[in-house]
Specification:
Blueprint: H1 2-14, H2 32-42, E1 73-75, E2 88-90, E3 142-143, E4 150-152, H3 157-162, H4 164-167, H5 179-188, H6 200-208, H7 212-220, H8 227-238, H9 247-252, H10 261-271, E5 290-291, H11 305-308, E6 317-318, E7 330-331, E8 337-338, H12 344-347, H13 352-358, H14 381-394, H15 398-401, H16 413-416, E9 421-423, E10 434-436, E11 449-454, E12 460-466, E13 468-476, E14 479-484, E15 487-492, E16 501-506, E17 519-527, E18 535-537, E19 540-544
Antiparallel strand pairs: 1-2, 3-4, 5-6, 7-8, 9-19, 10-11, 11-16, 12-15, 12-17, 13-14, 17-18, 17-19
Helix pairs in contact: 2-7, 2-8, 10-14
């Protein structure tokens, strides 16, 4: 009851207030130098172990601060099986890598990219929330992960959140990655080397400070790089991403024409019959509290209980802000709902519209008391369509949708450059061999590595390569040949006999400009007792050096 009374009091205080700035803690005041450093770090794929994932990969402003890659990656849910109701729309991270940077199978994902167990929450306006992550585990007290000292006692939730993904062996790091690994890498790389179309502020900063040590010196007074400074810079940048210029903001500020009559009708329904304001308080349009909507059985994910230890929160997840919700491609913590403007909102039982209309999902055992079946309150599906239109149009900050400052950003290499092309046919045995191509093959990448998978763990493989492809492929000795072979590399596979093998080749690419845009063609042949003639093959793979 105390919690409900507090929520009601805060709601009343928030009505008709405008969204203010995100306040920085006294221990990490906003400075232009920290903000620009944070922007570099946020958009640099080199912050990951294999140069394939940046913070911005999963938090794109034009997709509401969430993952905009399509189709969304799937993780098997509690049952461990793909293609069932509990599958999770998560975010692709890295292929599992050992501390020596070799690819090694994940128990769940094998040698494919790993996927997070929840949807990426929005980072736009994140500094307005008291705690971050769906389960609230990033708290306001920020503790230096290297020294274990409390650096920020209050309001350091963004700093707490920033240090998690960088060392995660699923999201950005290799198994056992340390801050010393991160430090050594940032000391040597060229900032944003892999990105393109850098924004003017990034270009200007590179002229003044062309290395990360010089940027850290500009922001903190000396070139030392450590986890706390990385967190301070990332948090400072994200506190500039305040989505406070929407039609609703203008309307509340006194411009009665800022919202259309249809939007105003949706706002009225939102605030009254729809009961949406019970959890989505103005002006953030979130109450910052966890709620259980009964989306999936509690046993699949206990949610905020891990942080609060409150039985009320079992299966509960933090209420997301509805600002820019229209830009998101999937909704809810597990991504089960289609986007707000998707026709499936009306037909899909797992959509936000139908979950709220029916008063919850499949598990009502610990349902939040605010989760009332709207259909029993006289609210119709058409009413919810009008409400969703209000959210879609009146709560979208056009600057985020159009990548305008402060939401402007460079193009990430992983999104601007097409992945290696797969062509021709392979020949499967126990499985069809494939190449692990997540590390970018760019000129000067002395850490480049190529993974091989397939065949038998006790066998051998041969990786062939050349500078011409066969399209259509040839058939020789009963095997498909897709590459005009220039040379071949014998490889001993790892793994158990009878199970697919794997290996990693470390292939440094010299910094020779004439190699740029050179196409290379690869095909893998593996010992495989279950394949015709005892050999299985991959299709052809075309790599372009950039």
């Amino acid at each position: 009851m105390l919690r409900l009374a507090l929520a009601t009091a805060l709601l009343c205080a928030a009505v008709n207030a405008q969204l203010g700035p995100m306040y920085a803690p006294a221990q990490n005041p906003q400075t232009p130098e920290k903000i620009i450093l944070g922007k570099f770090l946020f958009w640099d794929e080199q912050l990951s172990s294999d140069d394939s994932v940046a913070c911005g990969t999963c938090h794109l402003p034009e997709f509401g601060g969430t993952d905009g890659r399509t189709p969304h990656a799937l993780a098997p849910g509690h049952d461990g099986i793909y293609g069932t109701a509990d599958d999770i729309h998560g975010s692709s991270g890295v292929v599992r890598q050992a501390s020596n940077r070799t690819f090694t199978p994940s128990a769940v994902f094998g040698l494919q990219r790993q996927v997070t167990g929840r949807m990426s929450p929005s980072n736009l306006g994140a500094g307005h929330h008291a705690d971050l992550f769906w389960d609230l585990r990033a708290r306001g007290q920020f503790t230096d992960p290297e020294t274990n000292q409390i650096l920020i006692p209050f309001n350091g939730q963004l700093e707490s959140q920033a240090v998690g993904p960088i060392l995660s062996s699923v999201e950005m790091g290799h198994v056992g990655r340390t801050w010393q690994d991160v430090r050594q890498k940032l000391q040597s790389v060229e900032p944003l080397k892999l990105a393109s179309n850098l924004t003017p502020d990034l270009v200007a900063e590179l002229v003044l400070h062309p290395t990360y040590p010089t940027m850290f010196a500009s922001a903190f007074g000396d070139p030392a790089i450590n986890s706390a400074r990385i967190a301070f810079a990332l948090a400072s940048y994200q506190r500039t991403l305040n989505p406070d210029q929407t039609a609703w903001d203008q309307f509340i500020a006194g411009n009665t024409n800022a919202m259309t009559p249809y939007e105003q009708q949706g706002y009225s329904l939102f605030s009254n019959q729809g009961n949406c304001h019970a959890c989505h308080w103005e002006p953030l349009f979130s109450d910052d509290l966890p709620h259980n909507l009964g989306l999936r059985p509690i046993s699949e994910d206990i949610g905020a209980f891990v942080s609060t230890n409150d039985p009320f929160d079992i299966g509960g997840f933090k209420t997301p802000s509805l600002r820019n919700a229209a830009l998101k491609q999937r909704l809810f913590h597990n991504g089960q709902s289609v986007a707000l403007n998707d026709p499936g909102q009306l037909t899909d039982a797992t959509s936000t519209l139908n979950i709220y209309l029916q008063g919850g999902g499949v598990d009502l055992s610990n349902l939040d008391p605010f989760m009332l079946p709207l259909i029993n309150l006289g609210v119709t599906a058409n009413d919810l369509v009008i409400i969703q239109d209000f959210i879609t149009t009146a709560l979208t900050d056009s600057r985020a949708a159009n990548r305008q400052p402060p939401f402007d950003h460079p193009d990430l290499r992983s999104m601007a450059i097409a992945p290696p092309r797969v062509f021709g046919t392979g020949l499967a045995g126990s499985s069809e061999p494939f190449l692990i191509d997540t590390a970018p093959p760019y000129v000067g990448n002395l850490e480049y590595r190529l993974g091989l998978a397939g065949g038998d763990g006790a066998g051998l493989a041969v990786l062939t390569y050349g500078f011409q492809s066969f399209e259509p492929g040839l058939n020789f000795a009963g095997l498909p040949w897709n590459v005009n072979v220039h040379d071949w590399l014998p490889v001993a596979l790892q793994g158990a006999a009878g199970a697919p093998g794997y290996a990693t080749l470390h292939l440094p690419i010299p910094d020779v400009p004439t190699l740029s845009l050179l196409p290379l063609y690869w095909q893998l042949f593996c010992d495989d007792p279950q394949a015709p003639n005892g050999i299985s093959t991959s299709p052809g793979w075309e790599f372009i050096l950039h």
